[in-house]
Specification:
By secondary structure, this protein is α/β, with parallel strands linked by helices. Helices cover 29% and strands 27% of the residues. The chain is built from eight helices and 13 strands. A six-stranded mixed beta sheet has the order 6-7-8-3-9-10, sandwiched between helices. Strands 2-1-4-5 form a four-stranded antiparallel beta sheet, with helices on one face. About 3% of the residues have low confidence. It binds adenosine-5'-triphosphate. The site of adenosine-5'-triphosphate has 11 residues, from α1. Belongs to the ABC transporter superfamily.
Length: 272
C-alpha cells in the first residue's frame, strides 16, 4: 500500500478575475519528494504555496496536505516566505525567531518545557550555522543571516512538508550551496517533501526529483531532464525558447519575452 501523499492537487485551478494562473493541475507529491517550482514573475508560484498553506482558496478543484484538506497554521508545514527584511527595531533576537517555529503557531502553554525548548532552539541554530549571531537583534542581521534563521524556524518541528519561496535569494554562492545541502539533509533525515520556488534551480538541481514549470497560464511537470528541454518549454511558452548548458549551468533563453508581466532583464537561469 502506498503512503499518503505529502501533498496533492486534483483538477486544481487558480484564477484571479479573468486571469487564469494555472488550471488542470493534478499532482501528487510523495513523502521525501523534492519539487522545484519554476517560472517567470507573476506565473503563480507564490500563490501555489499560499494554496498549500490554506491562505489562498483554489478557484476550483481540491488540495490536500498529508491527506487532510488544507488549513491555516498547520504544524505539518514548514514555510520560508519570500524575503522581507525585518525592521531594525523588531524586538526579537535570532533565537527568539527560531523558537517561534516550535510553538509560535499556537496559543496556550509551550509544547516543550523551558529546558527542552532552549536545547531544541540551540540545535536548530547550530544546524543552520547561526550560533555566532543568534543572540543579536534580528533586525540588525544581514539579509543572509536572517534567512538562515528563518530556515531554522521552518525546520523546527520536523514538518512533513517544507515550502521555500526564493529562499536562496540573498545568499552568496557558498551559502546557497550550504542551505541547499541543509534542505536535502532534512528531507533525507525526516522524509519531508519539499516545494522549492526558485528562479535559479542550479543550486538545488542535484536534489530535485521533479520540476513544476509554470508559464503562460499553463505548466509542465516531470523530471528535470523531461521538462528542462528546448522543445518542451517552447511548446509551453508557445514561442521559441532555448535551454542551454553554459559552463555547467543551464539557462533558459527566450522565456523572458513571453513572461510579459515583469520581464527579467537577464536570461533566466534554471538548470545546468
Ligand atoms: N489575492 C490576489 N488577488 C488578485 N491577484 C493576485 C492575488 N494574489 C496574487 N495575485 C496575482 O497573481 C499573479 C501571480 O502572483 P504570484 O505572487 O503567485 O507570482 P509568482 O510566480 O510568485 O511571481 P514572482 O516570481 O514575481 O514572485 C500576480 O500577477 C499577482 O498580482
Amino acid at each position: 500500500m502506498s503512503a499518503v501523499p505529502a501533498a496533492s492537487f486534483r483538477d486544481a485551478e487558480l484564477a484571479f478575475g479573468h486571469r487564469t494562473l494555472w488550471s488542470g493541475l493534478n499532482l501528487e507529491i510523495e513523502p521525501g519528494e523534492y519539487v522545484a517550482v519554476l517560472g517567470g514573475n507573476g506565473t503563480g508560484k507564490t500563490s501555489l504555496l499560499r494554496v498549500l498553506l490554506g491562505l489562498q482558496p483554489l478557484s476550483s478543484g481540491t488540495v490536500h496536505v498529508a491527506g487532510q484538506a488544507v488549513r491555516r497554521g498547520s504544524a505539518e508545514i514548514g514555510y520560508v516566505p519570500q524575503q522581507r527584511a525585518f525592521d531594525d527595531r523588531t524586538p526579537l533576537r535570532g533565537r527568539d525567531l527560531v523558537g517561534l517555529g516550535i510553538d509560535g503557531h499556537r496559543w496556550g502553554p509551550r509544547i516543550l518545557g523551558r529546558k527542552a525548548h532552549r536545547e531544541r532552539v540551540n540545535t536548530l541554530v547550530e544546524r543552520v550555522g547561526a550560533l555566532e549571531y543568534a543572540d543579536a537583534p534580528i533586525g540588525q542581521l544581514s539579509g543572509g543571516e536572517q534567512q538562515r534563521l528563518r530556515v531554522a524556524q521552518a525546520l523546527a518541528m520536523d514538518p512533513s512538508l517544507l515550502l521555500f519561496d526564493e529562499a536562496l535569494l540573498s545568499l552568496d554562492l557558498h551559502r546557497q550551496s550550504q542551505l541547499a545541502q541543509l534542505v536535502a539533509e532534512q528531507r533525507d533525515r525526516t522524509g519531508a517533501a519539499v516545494f522549492f520556488v526558485t528562479h535559479d534551480v542550479n543550486p538545488i538541481i542535484d536534489d530535485v526529483d521533479r520540476v513544476l514549470y509554470l508559464a503562460n497560464g499553463s505548466f509542465r511537470v516531470g523530471t528535470p531532464a523531461e521538462v528542462l528541454r528546448s522543445d518542451v518549454l517552447s511548446e509551453l511558452y508557445g514561442a521559441r525558447v532555448e535551454v542551454m548548458n553554459v559552463a555547467g549551468r543551464v539557462l533558459v533563453v527566450g522565456a523572458e519575452i513571453v513572461d510579459h508581466c515583469h520581464p527579467p532583464t537577464t536570461p533566466e537561469e534554471v538548470t545546468r
